[in-house]
Write a structure and sequence with these properties.
The structure is a single chain. This protein has nine helices and three strands, in the order ααααααααββαβ. A three-stranded mixed β-sheet has the order 1-2-3, covered by helices on one side. Strand 1 and strand 2 (265-274) form a beta hairpin. It has 312 residues and is mainly alpha-helical. InterPro entries: Cation_efflux, Cation_efflux_CTD, Cation_efflux_CTD_sf, Cation_efflux_TM, Cation_efflux_TMD_sf, CDF_Transporter. The chain crosses the membrane at residues 25-49, 55-76, 97-115, 135-157, 178-195, 201-222. Residues 233-310 form the Cation efflux protein cytoplasmic domain.
């Protein structure tokens, strides 16, 4: 999918400098940022020329999309840095932080749309005449719906394939913009086709859309908060870890299992018991085998610590 020659130029520059996952995240994010930039310019022009406050609000929403693209580019680059003296577990949580920032921005944008829509509804029912938007604003809304839905599908597929929370969060931001544009299109279309008495459809639709936007924001923020507060991995994942350890001969009683997420990676600490009469070399070989198996299951970037104790 090629939106602009700038994407190919940037992608080629990244090819020799970054790992494959980071390179793909950059590519999908740059595609989104180019589309967002073109859309926000078009929407601002259409909102001003078409005398549509709703379209101007939609343009601000697209601007927030563009800003989140920049956030993803910056934070994903940081999150892929290897561990160093100050970050023994790497920099994976920077990606989680980026996801949280996107969620907060979505929440703020949704609340802003809700506030503006509710204010317009209040003013309308207290006798204020709302302005009539032009056809250019309606065209801009329809174009935005189509482009943003295509961008959402492209981005969410890439995000799931790359196992990137930040990219998936950004995809939902694209979807929220498409939903916002649907509300804008309904409102503008109703105001144009149905006359003065129906111009209130614009802010009503905006309020409904804002609720969906804030719901998506909360759904994105909850797992980010869980990770930042060191919530354990799901029970079924921890059960898989214990079964993997028990699959090695001589290993028993897995305990003191501690797990958490670090960005798109897992951190696992596990105590196991072995026969105290075996050699240190054999115990070490078994512990290394468990570590390798867990990395095969959950990815090479998994942080694994195995503590061996003698059977009592």
């Amino acid at each position: 999918m090629y939106i602009c020659p700038i994407v190919d130029l940037y992608y080629n520059k990244m090819e020799s400098k970054t790992p494959s996952r980071e390179k793909e995240i950059y590519k999908v994010t740059v595609v989104g940022s180019v589309v967002n930039f073109l859309l926000l310019v078009f929407k601002f022009v259409a909102g001003i020329a078409g005398h549509s406050a709703a379209m101007l609000a939609d343009a601000v929403h697209s601007l927030s999309d563009f800003v989140t693209d920049i956030i993803v580019i910056i934070f994903v680059r940081i999150s892929n840095k290897p561990e160093d003296k100050d970050h023994d577990y790497g920099h994976g949580k920077y990606e989680t932080l980026a996801t949280a920032i996107i969620g907060i921005l979505l929440l703020c944008v949704g609340f802003g749309i809700l506030w503006n829509g509710a204010s317009s509804i209040y003013d309308f029912f207290h006798g204020e005449q709302l302005g009539e938007p032009g056809m250019l604003a309606l065209i801009a809304a329809l174009v935005s719906i189509v482009l943003k839905e295509i961008l959402y599908q492209y981005t969410v597929i890439k995000g799931r394939k790359l196992n990137s929370q930040a990219v998936i969060a950004n995809a939902w931001h694209h979807r929220s913009d498409a939903l916002s544009s649907i509300g804008t299109a309904v409102g503008i279309g109703g105001a144009i086709l149905l006359g003065d008495k129906w111009r209130v459809l614009d802010p009503i639709a905006a309020v409904v859309v804002s609720i969906f936007i804030m719901k998506v924001a909360i759904q994105l923020l909850i797992p980010c908060v869980d990770e930042l507060l060191e919530k354990s991995l799901p029970d079924e994942v921890e059960h898989e870890i214990e079964q993997a350890a028990l699959s090695f001969p001589g290993v028993s009683q897995p305990h003191h299992l501690r797990t958490r997420r670090i960005g798109n990676q897992y951190a696992i600490e596990l105590h196991v018991r072995m026969d105290g009469k075996i050699s240190l070399e054999e115990a070490h070989r078994t512990a290394t085998g468990i570590e390798r198996k867990l990395k095969e299951m959950f990815g090479e970037g998994t942080h694994v610590g195995i503590h061996v104790e003698p059977i009592k």
